[in-house]
Prior knowledge:
The mean pLDDT is 92. The chain has helices at residues 2-36, 39-70, 74-107, 118-139, 142-150, 152-172, 177-209. The longest helix is centred in the first third of the chain and has 35 residues, at 2-36. The radius of gyration is 19 Å and the shape is elongated. It is mostly helical. The protein has a single domain (2-219), classed as Methane Monooxygenase Hydroxylase, Chain G, domain 1, CATH 1.20.58.220. It starts with a helix and ends in an 11-residue tail after the last helix.
Amino acid sequence: xxxxxxxxxxxxxxxxxxxxxxxxxxxxxxxxxxxxxxxxxxxxxxxxxxxxxxxxxxxxxxxxxxxxxxxxxxxxxxxxxxxxxxxxxxxxxxxxxxxxxxxxxxxxxxxxxxxxxxxxxxxxxxxxxxxxxxxxxxxxxxxxxxxxxxxxxxxxxxxxxxxxxxxxxxxxxxxxxxxxxxxxxxxxxxxxxxxxxxxxxxxxxxxxxxxxxxxxxxxx
Length: 220
């Protein structure tokens, strides 16, 4: 029974990593679509969010089957509950990427008020954090997960710089408000993706140590 459970957990983790890769790709591509004013690409990204949602429900069903069929003990349940928490975070990240894609569609071919400076950096940093958070989760590496949590400050700094830049442009020229506001929304979505990565890392620390780090309530 224990070997069977371990095998199922291994398969579960592989599916979670695959889902995270889908989310990372959607995040990067949504920002590229915005940068390139590529409405067709954005429409595909928004549509493909259904695939991320389907992956989430498939993994959740696997978790339910594990509980029903494998008679997990307390430590096993912690692993399954952690998996359920992680896929919830990933699904929300996918929604944020979809949100950026929808902003591209909303803006159409209207030119941006300025070239994107902060968002590509934020997307690259957030997806790198996501990739490493998955590695930490799979290996139950509390130290690595804690270090990734601390990197969220870098994303917050980029977000603050982007927000301030766009706000100053709107103050100087109120006519750009309708163009700048969607960019603030998109930037905020990237900041939230990084927050969700941090949530995964906190869950990893709990899984590895049995102790939940102090939670920053403002992220929820």
